[in-house]
């Protein structure tokens, strides 16, 4: 105690308080983020996923860094050629460099995955928070709407929507695929959000905050949202992974990216028929796709664990 | 600070000479799919500054619901205040619009919850949660709010308050957590503090510390304190008056000494007899037979009659016994209070 009094004495009425002193040995983190970082630092899963994500994002942002050639430089004379020079993975049916196509394909996948997930996140958060917090007829209305969207056959809706949105043949279809995935993919996130909002709405700390004079906006943003967001974030990271995979599926089906777009989905689609002759053009984009999806899901899981004080 | 005081002074009908808190004929019901559950059926009490009123009763007798109704934080629906008044210095809080009433909460009337761990937001540090009160309600800067928070944690006797301000609620022990809760409730200097079973979740030695702290803070601030509990041992030392509730009614109200010495209601008497006593060691404990009534089906007449040793035909018929005046400032809702008190 005398330590503290000394500290208090040195502190003028207007001066900044000195650095807080730790009375016990335990090194206490000062904030939720600091605390989470402390946890993450020690997590192997986090480092593995983070490094993978950094590499993939770097691939998407600066493909030239990876020493790949031009993915659009194709010559039929090299059809299904074996690896040579910088074409570490060989050549595909059209005689394009598989390594270059794989590296350059990251950009479309990441772009579509991240943007579609953000779109889904915004819609899902609004619906989930609104339905869970207000309850009653608002909940009934919003939840039935979620059910309706959930009831739409995904592939059918995606085909119709993507086709409709990308009627311009010169467009590479990134916007169309992003909007399609975003608009169709938010339902699970909204339902998860709704249920965790309902669970935390009835907690004592919300009643306590009301008792201390908090208004509805403050209750929602400060008390309910931070306590119910964890599950939502996990769903979004999984969604990010599946969005990347679904973009590949749509491209494979010929309704996703098109024109001169380079993407893993297109590459997989094109290599499919020749898999028994030349498996490499199919295998490499698939491996990168799977690794990306895995990295995002693991990263999300690790971050969720670190940021959720209830798990500690 | 002056701003808030001015706002409160502007409340319509504020009378500085009226009782600090007055609850009259309060009725609360819960409309559920199984029927209407009448949790509070005419609760009456008054509270003066510096006074401690204990509300005593078994689980499910309407104590906590009464507290929530006073605070205006009932879950509605299903909970509704159907009748009665809650007056703070003459202002009927039920009639205030929600945004006015919000100012009364925490500034004038605050509440402590039973389980401090669940009543503190798990994702923010206690320093943040305390500081937020000062920043939002008092418009303080971050630095000032932090200083006030440390002072407050010092006041509730949390050791090394300055260092612990960055801790999360789950890093505190049960007793320390309840102190944090008390600090939050007292942050805006309320005149009335409602403590809803503040020590139930704590072990006995910590209970005594917390009760002592509450009594001390109450004296310093001349607050009115409403102590809700089911533990007769806890209230004996600190309460000035006791209201015993049963099935949503105050069945007996009396100064603390009188009620322990000569209970005037069979329920109070049975409660006192059920306290384990050293001089009856080895003997069977006295229990109150039966269970409190379901609030969807409260017995006719006196609600306690199925469990009462004194019950006669009159007790089983409506109307329920009125509050008989036993002594000045002392009432009991029992037709046969003279017999009960006389033994």
How does this structure look, described?
The complex is a heterodimer of chains A (312) and B (343). Chain A has twelve helices and no strands. Chain A has 312 residues and is mainly alpha-helical. Chain A has a single domain, classed as MetI-like fold. The N terminus of chain A is likely disordered. In chain B, helix 5 crosses helix 6. Chain B is built from 13 helices and twelve strands. Chain B has 343 residues and is of the alpha/beta class. The termini of chain B are far apart. In chain B, strands 6-7-8-3-9-10-12-11 form an eight-stranded mixed sheet, with helices on both faces. A four-stranded antiparallel sheet of chain B has the order 2-1-4-5, covered by helices on one side. Chains A and B meet through helix 1, helix 9 and helix 10 of A and helix 3, helix 5, helix 6, helix 7 and helix 8 of B.
Summarize the structure.
The complex is a heterodimer of chains A (312) and B (343). Chain A has 312 residues and is an all-alpha fold.
């Amino acid at each position: 105690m005398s330590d503290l009094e000394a500290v208090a004495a040195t502190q003028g009425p207007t001066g900044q308080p000195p650095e807080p002193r730790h009375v016990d040995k335990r090194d206490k983190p000062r904030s939720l983020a600091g605390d989470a970082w402390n946890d993450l630092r020690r997590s192997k899963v986090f480092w593995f996923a983070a490094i993978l994500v950094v590499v993939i994002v770097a691939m998407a942002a600066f493909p030239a860094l990876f020493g790949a050639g031009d993915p659009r430089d194709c010559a039929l004379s090299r059809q299904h050629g074996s690896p040579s020079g910088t074409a570490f993975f060989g050549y595909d049916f059209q005689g394009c460099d598989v390594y270059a196509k794989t590296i350059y394909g990251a950009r479309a996948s990441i772009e579509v995955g991240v943007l579609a997930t953000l779109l889904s996140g915004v819609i899902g958060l609004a619906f989930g928070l609104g339905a869970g917090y207000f309850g009653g007829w608002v909940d009934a209305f919003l939840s039935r709407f979620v059910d309706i969207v959930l009831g739409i056959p995904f592939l059918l809706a995606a085909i119709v929507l993507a086709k409709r949105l990308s009627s311009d043949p010169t467009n590479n279809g990134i916007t169309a695929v992003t909007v399609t995935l975003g608009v169709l993919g938010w339902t699970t996130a909204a339902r998860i959000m709704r249920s965790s909002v309902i669970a935390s709405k009835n907690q004592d700390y919300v009643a306590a905050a009301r008792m201390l004079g908090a208004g509805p906006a403050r209750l929602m943003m400060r008390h309910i949202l931070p306590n119910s967001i964890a599950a939502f974030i996990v769903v979004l990271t999984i969604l990010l992974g599946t969005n990347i995979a679904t973009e590949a599926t749509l491209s494979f089906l010929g309704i996703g990216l098109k024109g001169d777009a380079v993407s893993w989905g297109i590459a997989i689609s094109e290599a499919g028929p020749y898999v028994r002759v030349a498996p490499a053009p199919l295998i490499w984009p698939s491996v990168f796709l799977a690794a990306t999806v895995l990295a995002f899901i693991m990263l999300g899981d690790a971050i969720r664990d670190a940021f959720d004080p209830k798990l500690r | 600070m002056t701003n808030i005081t001015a706002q409160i002074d502007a409340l319509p009908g504020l009378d500085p000479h009226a009782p600090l808190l007055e609850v009259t004929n309060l009725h609360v019901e819960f409309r559920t799919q199984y029927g209407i559950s009448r949790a509070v059926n005419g609760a009456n009490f008054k509270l003066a500054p510096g006074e401690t009123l204990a509300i005593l009763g078994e689980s499910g007798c309407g104590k906590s619901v009464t507290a929530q109704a006073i605070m205006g934080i009932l879950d509605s629906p299903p909970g509704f205040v159907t009748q009665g008044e809650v007056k703070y210095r003459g202002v009927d809080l039920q009639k205030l619009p929600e945004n006015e009433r919000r100012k009364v909460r925490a500034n004038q009337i605050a509440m402590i919850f039973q389980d401090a761990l669940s009543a503190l937001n798990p994702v923010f540090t206690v320093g943040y949660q305390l500081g937020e009160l000062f920043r939002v309600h008092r418009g303080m800067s971050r630095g000032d709010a932090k200083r006030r928070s440390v002072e407050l944690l010092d006041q509730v006797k949390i050791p090394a308050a300055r260092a612990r301000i960055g801790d999360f609620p789950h890093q505190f022990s049960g007793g320390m957590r309840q102190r944090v809760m008390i600090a939050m409730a007292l942050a805006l200097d309320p005149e009335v503090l409602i403590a809803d079973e503040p020590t139930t979740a704590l072990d006995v030695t910590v209970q005594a510390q917390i009760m002592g702290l509450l009594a001390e803070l109450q004296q310093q601030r001349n607050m009115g304190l409403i102590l809700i509990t089911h533990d007769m041992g806890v209230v004996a030392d600190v309460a000035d008056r006791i209201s015993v509730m049963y099935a949503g009614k105050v069945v007996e109200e009396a100064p603390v000494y009188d009620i322990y010495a000569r209970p005037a209601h069979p329920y109070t008497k049975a409660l006192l007899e059920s306290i384990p006593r050293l001089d009856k060691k080895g003997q069977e404990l006295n229990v109150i037979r039966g269970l409190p009534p379901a609030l969807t089906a409260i017995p006719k007449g006196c609600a306690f009659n199925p469990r009462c040793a004194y019950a006669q035909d009159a007790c089983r018929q409506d109307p329920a016994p009125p509050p008989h005046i036993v002594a000045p400032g002392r009432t009991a809702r029992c037709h046969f209070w003279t017999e009960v008190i006389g033994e």
